[in-house]
Amino acid sequence: MQIPFTACPGLFYSTPAQDGLLYRLRIPGGIINCQQFQTIADIADNHGSGYIDITNRANIQIREIQQSINIEVLKKFQALGLASTNAKIDHIRNIMTNPTAGIDIEELIDIRPLVKDWEEYITAHSHLGELSAKFSVCFDSGGKVSVRYQPNDIILAAELNNSNVYLRLYLSYGEKGEPAKDTGIVFKPEKAITVLEALAETYLKHIDTKNRRKLRLREIINNITVKEYLHQVQENLNPGILKITKTPLRAFAPLREKTHIGIHSQRQTGLYYIGIVLPLGRLETSQIRGLANIAKRYGDNNIRLTPWQNLLLTDIPQNQISEVEQEITNLGLNSSPTDIKSFLVACSGKRGCAAAATETKDDALNLVKYLDSLMILDSSVNIHFSGCSKSCAQHTQADITLLGITTETPGYQVYVLGHLLYEYVTIAKIPILIPEMLAVYQKQRLNLQETFGQFIQRHSHQLNQLFKY
Ligand code: SF4
Fold first, then answer.
1. Where in the sequence is the domain holding 320, given as residue range(s)?
2. Alpha-carbon span 469 to 453, nearest angstrom
3. Ligand 1 centroid to 390 CA: how many Å?
């Protein structure tokens, strides 16, 4: 099979890593049914090492595969709707949406049909396989569990305008790592696929499809200006579809990721969803099968993967919540919003990535073990372990960032809210240092409501004195 020019893993072509082959399954919108989930467990058992990782785009990665997955297995995946019927688009980034789409009590529109329509559109148009593997599209429903701040090239975010729902267009341009910016353009949801088509076709006109490294949308817009790019997009559309809005952008509070962890009522009366903490997005195959059984027995037969590497069980009747909680506990999992693991993020680390200076996942899990035995965390603190400065696992700023570095022996630089606190800490010292920092915060914060971030900002001029090491 012809392999697209991409370094990103897919299902139809694997990526070698230190610990074996890595396969990635795109799960558009992160929604997967029980049968699909169980089949993935079988593959991880038969071909991998008995676990999967949920990624920060709600993909599934199966790692440590020693022999390529054969064509019969791929056909089985296709029959189950787990693999695209068009291998040419398999490398394109997973379509992101709110994990609570269709059930969020605050959402303006059920955005799931648009995710499905865009997936079907790119599947049916093979030339879109020329898009950069990093060409990323996100649909935000305007709900409580927002994804409008997640890193994406294109974000279509629902908002109310004179009592009508419109989608506002955000595009990625400017400096690398900057969030996508509001273009001030809105359009009707029913035009979403037409607009995306025009955005994609305009992008394709500017890239050299033979070049192995395709320019990102951000780079193209930086080259020609956002005004010119939008002008060219407009030329591909019927007049009147895009409107310049005079309504200023409503201020949205950035999501504290824990919002979706725990038990939450759905917009459907009497039904609840439960956000479950996964340690670093990892699930053993026994847990996959257990969760699939719970979803089948108590829920709607689906599991929703989140861009925060956790998952949701949905449509749980109120009178069955405690039974479901018990079943979750029996699987060695929990739904506590203050569990340190619900805010812990790590990239694949040395075993999975040649660029990594450290074994991020192992170091993060060691920290958790130590923390669990030492203290109860009564508020959530986002800790991010990154094997190098690319920050694949989390592009937004964490409360505490540990950046792997190699000096004589590998260790970490430690940052709080992006401020470098320690130049070098040995791996062995991390499980001692971080609990000490958290203890300083818990002892000296103004009250229980003061978040770690607010605490750091209040002490921003004296951080080195505060966290003496
Ligand atoms: S952050 Fe760096 S080390 Fe970690 S997966 Fe990305 S490239 Fe590899």
1. 261-336
2. 20
3. 6
